[in-house]
Amino acid sequence: MVAASGLASAGFPAIVSAVNRKPTIRVLGTHVTLQEAIRQRAEQDLGINIEFHPGGSAGVLLRASTNPQSFDLYEQWSNSIRILWQAGSIQPIEISRLKYWNEINSLTKTGRISPDARLGQGDAPYKLLYVQPEGTLAPEPSRHISFLPYVHNTDSFGYDSRRIAQGVPYETESWGWLLNPDYHGKVAIVNAPTIGLFDLALAVQARGLMQFADIGNMSRTELDLLFEIAVEYKRRGHFRGVWSSVPASVELMQNEEVWIQSMFSPGVSSLNGMGVPCVYAAPREGYRAWHGVMCLSSHCEGERKEAAYAFMNWWLSGWPGAFIARQGYYIANPERSRRFMSAAEWDYWYEGEPAAQRLKGTDGRFSVAEGEVRTGGSYQQRFENIAVWNTVMDNYEYTLIKWKEFLLA
Amino acid sequence: MVSTFYFKLRTRIYAGYIITGGIALLMVLLAYFSVMSLFGEFKHFTEHGESALRGQELSRNVVELQRSADLFMQDGQVSGARQAAYISERVQRILLQLEQGGQPEVQERVESIRQHLNIYTSTFEDVKRQRQRRAELVEQRIADHASEVNRLLQAYRRLQGSGRAAPVDQLAELETALLRVEQGASRYFYTLDGRHITRMQQWMRESRQLMSGFALLEIRPEAQALLDAMLQSLQNYEAVILEAVQRTRGYMYLVNVVMAAEADEMLYQTQYLAELIQAEMKNIEEQAVAEMRWTGQWVLWICLGLLVLVLLLSYLIGHSVADPIRSLAKTFMDLARGKDSTSIERQDADDELGELARAAEVFRSKNQETRQLLASFQALSSELEQKVADRTQELEQANARLEALSNTDSLTGLANRRLFDQVLEREWARVERSGEPLAAIMMDVDYFKLYNDHYGHLAGDDCLKAIADELQLQLKRATDLAARYGGEEFVMLLQNTDLEGALRVAESIRQAVEQLHLPHVESPMGQVSLSLGVALHTRDCPAQDRHWLVRQADEALYCAKEGGRNRVCAWPQVGSIGRSESSSGRSDH
């Protein structure tokens, strides 16, 4: 990694830590978790310097996988684990150094939040969690894990209820809506083959256009057929386009360029805060779930490693979980965050109860009206209904080529 | 009369011309400005037409940009990259042109396209770097590391000849494993199938385990050092392959996901922008048409308004001029007809009409004087007329007197009674002196009163004139005299004529009249006839008085009348006194 180290030293001069005696950790990730409020609070609580280097999913993944010297901690989604682990960019995390390990719920440990829950297809985090003695990742528990389980959520699509009649969660709401000809030209998909691809696949499957042997690991033939269908829709002008960031998704629906699209929870909150009645669907086929991963750079050692463990433990210490709950995200050890939330907040965000009062989002604006009920029900109910996890499939490279065909159709 | 027009006539007419001229100028200016406004609209429209073309050009360029970038990304054509950079600059220029003077919505879209273009171009730069780095890794560094591991392995194998550590079959196994690693890597880069990397890693682990196994058995320091170097080299080899894999994936992600999405979005946005501009152009077109229509209508209404103003003004000025002139003309006409009682308006006015009014007043006063003069002339004239009438009367009286003094009868032209008396007196005296007999024939028209009653006095007069003419014809000698004695009575004096001769003459007269055949229905004779009485005076006759002869003739006439009219009677005893009846008469005929 001679060439990579050159890039790293150019990107992050050590002079920052020379000026300040306190250790500095560099966190590479996306805007989902790299929020200024979180950074400031962590610095305050931990007495360390924290640098956030947020970026686009692809950019941060490429940087992390090719240049592990450029970061200490990497925050992204479980679908990047295979790549990072394969690239040797991250080192195993010692469970013994994780203060709240025992509080982490079974979702990441066994794949099921409850005994009756569906085991989502694709790269369920539990499959990638434990580091095996021979260096592979597997569900069998060990003393080391590849990532710290923390933020996670179920994703689906959002729709403007002024344009599309509101459906019944888990009953009428369906991924198939994304391909409803009535919404011609008013549909958008998230621009990520490991995410948006599943939205398309679930939609195609819901409309009965094709079936997958394993939706979490599609064959090239299946991909060919899937994209044949998707490209046909795209050519007919069914899709407004794709979006590459949450603000872009918000803008699309706010401008009424789109009625229905792949959505992330903050986008839905943001739209509702603006008065756009965006409904976050609970598809009867189940959710597309994602799990946030916090990884330790293979090059993080010494003082910085200590600080990195401290930051990981801080993330599960309650306040951050409550903070991101207000954006609709869940934390791996919810009970610890409960004490940092009002009863109304807990009931609304985790229990799926109607809001007892108006609730504020993380931006301080009211995003939840009194009496409003979170679509999809409680935390448990949502994670009992996972169709597929965001996944880097074996045919990842092929999906990239196909994705371009779809985009430029 | 409009009281507000107190300016001079000249001033008023000039003002009328100036105002009309001003209004015409205003209309010209208005037309000019409306034409300029229409021109502005047209220009605006044309500019937007250009920007619509730019919008379409933008779409084409974005497609071209993606095509050029693809050329580079697929085949590594440097010209494609250069072309892409050139097109990108062109797109930036077009965006700048569109941004200038564009509507906020257009500017917003342009900004959005620019952002996507910036991401696209910076990603493309990244792609170029990744491509180069990947090529370096795949084509050079991986091979270098592979040969380095192989070199170490061969060195170890050579060393193996002298030792006993690693069995030959395990060495062959390691060689195979390393070959599989190489195969796996190259297959991945050829097929881009991730499973080859998983397998490659398995072979890598296998190789590492084999090497570790050799190391455990090895006791020779140089061999151990060689194995350590081999393990290190293997690790570097794997790292390079994995970096190449990540570079490949990263490169593919950038090309297939990031750039493609940006290109897709740019295409959408440019098409949207082109439509937006098109719609805006349509809007501008409609607006321009509406504005043109509005301007046209507006100009028309203003022109009409100004026209009405001009007409009104002309009407008012015309009236202000014509009314007093008409009034003055009437006044002059009246004055010309001789009226002097006409009241003359506007004499106080300080304008040309005032002057005319004052002239009329002069005319009027002159008229008054003339009238007074005429009255005095008329008085004089009637006085003269009276005098003429008086003179005429006097003259008529004088004429009447002169008539009385005349000798002829005005109706018949015969001698009148007065001349008869004078001639009788003279002839009476001559009888005394010469002794020659003097005969007198007295004649009377029979039933003349009945004639007059029946035929009228004018016919009566004509009858008398006809008889008188016959009498005139019967006068054979210049010394004989026929006279109208009065009414229907005639008398004839015959000088030196005896009774017989006189009777002959009388008979001749009677016959002559009878021959006239003048009808007289009231007469028993059926025609006009005469009764004649003849008398004779001689010297012997004792009569003293000349009237005697007339009385004798009258007696004879009476006798003829008595005898049945239309006959001649004579008093036969000439010179005898007493009455005698002549035998002559009708019986003679």
TrEMBL record, chain A:
Superkingdom in the source lineage: Bacteria
InterPro entries assigned: SBP
Keywords: Signal
Protein name: Putative spermidine/putrescine transport system substrate-binding protein
TrEMBL record, chain B:
GO terms for biological process, alphabetical: cell adhesion involved in single-species biofilm formation; negative regulation of bacterial-type flagellum-dependent cell motility; signal transduction
UniProt KW keywords: Coiled coil, Membrane, Transmembrane, Transmembrane helix
Protein's UniProt keywords contain Transmembrane helix: yes
Catalysed reaction equations from the record: 2 GTP = 3',3'-c-di-GMP + 2 diphosphate
Residues in HAMP domain copies: 319-372
Coiled-coil region(s): 367-408
Named cofactor requirement(s): Mg(2+)
Domain GGDEF: 436-573
Enzyme class: transferase
Protein name: diguanylate cyclase
Species per Swiss-Prot/TrEMBL record: Marinobacterium stanieri
Taxonomic classification: Bacteria, Pseudomonadati, Pseudomonadota, Gammaproteobacteria, Oceanospirillales
